């Protein structure tokens, strides 16, 4: 199995366990960290809608809990005809732990449909390097 297929299978397995009774839009995410390890997440909705969490959020949390900090690439899988690109908040969450060239692969149940860099999805981001420059002032 090639590297992208491996990431797709991990995200698809996570998606099967998504908790999405309200939107019925199950999403899975899989991160390949700088070490090569894979971390998975699925969306977790809540009756109080704003309390729900995106799949990317869970995958990032799993990576952090394992002691890692660097996203090499992330794959998100959703359903339907539209691209299940990361929401604005998740783009910000990803760039906290990724260089601007880190790959964001967007998939449907049939496989990868599009590939972006996080820098393209969130240009001129307010990221850790800007925070560090502010903190030095
Ligand atoms: Zn999101």
Question: What features would you describe in this structure?
Answer:
This protein has 137 residues and is an alpha+beta fold. The chain has a single domain, classed as Cytidine Deaminase, domain 2 (3-Layer(aba) Sandwich). It is 34% helix and 23% strand. It is built from 5 helices and 5 strands, in the order αββαβαββαα. The chain has helices at residues 3-16, 55-65, 88-95, 118-121, 128-136; strands at residues 28-33, 38-42, 71-77, 103-108, 111-117. Strands 2-1-3-4-5 form a 5-stranded mixed beta sheet. The protein is globular. The termini are far apart. Zinc ion binds at residues 54, 56, 86-87, 89-90.
Keywords:
5 helices, globular, alpha+beta, 23% strand, Cytidine Deaminase, domain 2, binds zinc ion, 5 strands
The shape is globular
Radius of gyration: 15 Å
User: DSSP strand (E) fraction?
Assistant: 15-25%
Q: What's the CATH class label?
A: Alpha Beta
Concise structural overview:
By secondary structure, the protein is an alpha+beta fold. It is built from five helices and five strands; from the N terminus they run H-E-E-H-E-H-E-E-H-H.
